[in-house]
Write a structure and sequence with these properties.
Low-confidence stretches: none
Number of strands: 0
Strand content: under 5%
Radius of gyration: 23 Å
Largest sheet: none
Order of helices and strands: HH
Mean pLDDT: 88
Length: 94
């Protein structure tokens, strides 16, 4: 896997994070129900908690994107500097 492959994976994870974030935004609209009762209050509280979890998941996916992009850069940098054959350890006495 080279830097380009890792960047493609980062793009897919970024798109996933955006989808998860959008789901959290849609959950926010559910708290604006126009009814009042203890059940409505419980519903709103649970939706708010779930939205926090969903938003947190999107944040973790964002962090994964950053890590993947750093990894891609390291792969690119290492590909640009080939290892000389003298630096390869000898195995089996050859």
């Amino acid at each position: 896997m080279d830097g380009g492959h890792v960047r493609a994976l980062a793009r897919a994870v970024h798109d996933l994070a955006e989808g998860v974030r959008g789901a959290g935004d849609r959950l926010a609209t559910a708290t604006s129900v126009g009814w009042t009762s203890p059940a409505a209050d419980e519903f709103r509280g649970r939706v708010r908690d779930e939205r926090r979890r969903v938003t947190g998941a999107a944040g973790l996916l964002d962090e994964a994107v950053v890590a993947l992009l750093r990894h891609a850069a390291l792969l690119d940098a290492s590909a640009a500097r080939p290892v000389p054959l003298t630096a390869v350890p000898r195995v089996g006495g050859w």
